[in-house]
Amino acid sequence: MKEKVSKNVRRITPSRIREMSMRAARYREVISLGIGEPDFHTPPSICRSALADAEAGATHYTPTRGDNELVAALQEYMIRGRGIEMDQSGIIVTHGGMGGLTASLRTLLDPGEEAIIPEPCFPTYPAQIELANAFPVYVPTDFDDGFVIRPDRIAAAVTSKSRLMLINSPNNPTGAVLPGHVLDELARIAVEKDLIVVSDEVYDHLVYGGKHESIYTRPGMAERTIVVNSFSKTFAMTGWRIGFSFGPPWLIEEMMKVAMFFTSCPSSIGQRAALAALNTDRRVFAAMEEAFETRCRFAWERLRKMPGIRINPASGSFYLFPSIAAITVDDTSFAMDLVDEERVVVVPGSAFGPSGAGCIRISCTVDTPILSEALDRIENFIRRRMS
User: What CATH number corresponds to the domain at position 178?
Assistant: First the structure.
């Protein structure tokens, strides 16, 4: 009966991130550095506020664009936090950041068209493009460049079928942050080649040693950029499943058609929690952001001293992406054996694209003492492999 399933769905392979978690479920005393989820809980004040709103009746459908108060608060948030002024018609609340990706890619791509993606990349990108009957075009990045894309490679990948460019900064899985001059050049290419840009910026509050920059602010880009964002990482609200996107009103209006027939609207209670989060003093979340930076720098210091490891400094997000190529070229076996022998979960870099082969992704999403123990186990594993 499997032939009854759409060919389009059958060709999608399950995420190896989840595969690693399932493998780890066989064991006890496992330390997972595999899932990209903050270990911090949503602040209690936000939970209480959402509960109070639910008890007061905020349990019904909201407009497809989102709860009116939340949309207005997001407009203010963009002005206050980013210095970006926009009309509320340029904002949509989505079912997590994934909902924003789905709505934007389904709105923009016709069957047979191409979407250009620098890789390594979040596995959701190519899967969503393929589910739209379009084709992902991978553009490689290099370890020695810190996995920052070379704009000339993007330009060389453009064909008559190219519809959009999908970028992610800070990056999952590499932690790379696109510097301003690269964004300038990518914007120039987008305008010159008439490409729409989908910019995934869900880690925008996790930039180390600088400030987040968006391609949206470059000349000519506000009219051709969709920024996808989420409350999950910024506010420790992964389970609430609330995201938002902003861009030119004409494009947001078209995305609303997709959202309307895919999800109708996001969770009303989740949206009330998001509103409470926006009204919460940012200092509440500063400790979380500082903790991620501290952990990433701690792990980087440990890893760079381990035999066979090459690693770039932490730039953003809460990921590190060290090369293990001097130990083995088989990153999948490395990750699986690490679970089996040391009970530590990481993700093989090849799960994120060809440029990730020979690397592993480490999520610094556990407290420092636990992270230290995990790194001890990784070092023991490496020394055995190299002895």
Answer: 3.40.640.10
Looking at residue 357, which CATH number applies to its domain?
A: 3.90.1150.10
Please identify every stretch of the chain with a pLDDT value under 50, giving residue numbers as ranges. Answer: none
Q: Measuring CA to CA, which residue among 152, 168, 178, 163 is closest to residue 229? A: 168
Structural domain of 38: 2-42+283-386
CB atoms < 10 A from the CB of 113, how many?
A: 18
What pLDDT is recorded for position 169?
98
User: Would you state the pLDDT for residue 18?
Assistant: 81
Cis peptide leading into 120, omega within 30 of 0?
Answer: yes
For residues 161 and 110, what is the distance between their CA atoms, to the nearest angstrom? 10
177 and 326 inside one domain: no
Helix 96-108 to helix 124-131 angle (10° resolution) is: 40
Tokens of 233: 């990482």
Among 237, 259, 278, the domain boundary falls at: 278
Boundary residue ending a domain (278, 307, 340):
278
Specify the pLDDT at position 118: 99
Contacts of 276 (CB under 8 A, 6+ apart): 45, 46, 49, 50
pLDDT of amino acid 324? 99
pLDDT, position 3: 80
> Within a 13 Å sphere around the CA of 339, how many CA atoms are in the beta-carbon half?
23
* pTM exceeds 0.90, yes or no: yes
The number of CA neighbours under 13 Å toward the Cβ of 43 is: 22
Report the domain count for the chain: 2
